[in-house]
Structure formats: structure tokens, C-alpha cells
Automatic annotation (TrEMBL):
Keywords recorded for this protein, A-Z: DNA-binding, Transcription, Transcription regulation
SUPFAM superfamilies linked to this entry: Dimeric alpha+beta barrel, Winged helix' DNA-binding domain
Keyword Transcription regulation listed: yes
Coiled-coil regions listed: none
PANTHER family per UniProt: LEUCINE-RESPONSIVE REGULATORY PROTEIN, TRANSCRIPTIONAL REGULATOR AZLB
GO biological process entries: response to amino acid
Protein name in the entry: Transcriptional regulator, AsnC family
GO MF term set: sequence-specific DNA binding
InterPro entries linked: ArsR-like_HTH, AsnC-type_HTH_dom, Dimeric_a/b-barrel, Tscrpt_reg_AsnC-like, Tscrpt_reg_AsnC/Lrp_C, WH-like_DNA-bd_sf, WH_DNA-bd_sf
Length: 162
């Protein structure tokens, strides 16, 4: 993998496009090169399907970090602190939660140095009192389309009013 591959993957992710022509328009990489590179990324398993879902471990983002973030309560802190956490480079998901933990933060990183940088970034936010982070050892399940976790009838009963 090289810089062109990363530019293609970044464009797929940020623009949510999978057309070699549109990727070419955003990156300036020739269409034929984009097409060839996408095929190579599929063969390597980096791109998994026609939706262009990516295997992040094959991109180098092999460590999943789950952090519990504890913040000082104040009016509207869930929005202001949550937004600042979400702006930290490498943070993929931020959830404001009920219970003892204020936020759950998910990040995909390359190494322990990035973990340290993330935790330092969390703790540089004044309202954050402490964090507790965990490395994922094995992903047992990671369904990117949660609707797949339900039987059709369950969804009909739960969502559609009769």
C-alpha cells in the first residue's frame, strides 16, 4: 500500500463514493489507475465488497481502542465536551451514555504511541476528569448494518404501527 492507495481509501470513506470516475475527480489520480488500485485493494482484502467496506487492520489501523471518559457535570456538557472529543484526530465514534461513564469513545489506531496521544488529547480537555481505555483483543462481531441483526418480523412488529 502506498500514498495513492491511501488517497483512494480516504476519498471512498470521506466522500462515500465508489465510482472510479468520481474518485478520479476528487483525487486527480487517473481513472485507469484508480480502477487498477481498487482491484488490487480488493484482492488484498482491504476492500471487502461492492459497498467498499474496508478491513481496517489491513490498512494498518489494527488496534481498536475503547475508552470510557468521565467528565465534570455542567449544563450542556454532553454536547460541548462530546463535540471536542469527536474533533480529536483518530476518534471514530463518541457516545454520551447514562450511568457512571459519561462518554464511550471508539478509535482505530496503529500502535501504542497513537493510544498515548489519544488519551493525552482526551485529558487535555478541562472538563474531563479521567479516562479508562481498553484494547480489543479479538473482534467477535462487528455488524456494520445493525438492521441485519433482526428478523424481518421483529422489525415489522417493532417499527410499523398496525
Amino acid at each position: 500500500m502506498d500514498e495513492k492507495d491511501l488517497r483512494i481509501l480516504e476519498t471512498i470513506a470521506s466522500e462515500r463514493i465508489n465510482s472510479p470516475e468520481r474518485i478520479h475527480e476528487h483525487t486527480g489520480i487517473p481513472k485507469s489507475t484508480v480502477h487498477y488500485r481498487i482491484e488490487q485493494l480488493r484482492e488484498k482484502g482491504v476492500i471487502r465488497n461492492d459497498l467498499y467496506e474496508m478491513d481496517l487492520s489491513k490498512v494498518g489501523l489494527s488496534i481498536v481502542l475503547i475508552s470510557e471518559v468521565y467528565a465534570e457535570y455542567e449544563e450542556g456538557y454532553h454536547e460541548s465536551v462530546g463535540e471536542r472529543i469527536g474533533e480529536i484526530e483518530g476518534v471514530n465514534q463518541v457516545y454520551f451514555t447514562m450511568g457512571d461513564t459519561d462518554f464511550i469513545v471508539i478509535a482505530h489506531v496503529t500502535d501504542r504511541r497513537m493510544v498515548e496521544d489519544l488519551v493525552e488529547s482526551y485529558e487535555s480537555i478541562d472538563e474531563i476528569r479521567r479516562t479508562s481505555s481498553k484494547f480489543v483483543i479479538t473482534t467477535v462481531k462487528n455488524e456494520s448494518h445493525p438492521i441485519n441483526d433482526f428478523d424481518h418480523e421483529t422489525l415489522v412488529d417493532a417499527i410499523l404501527e398496525e
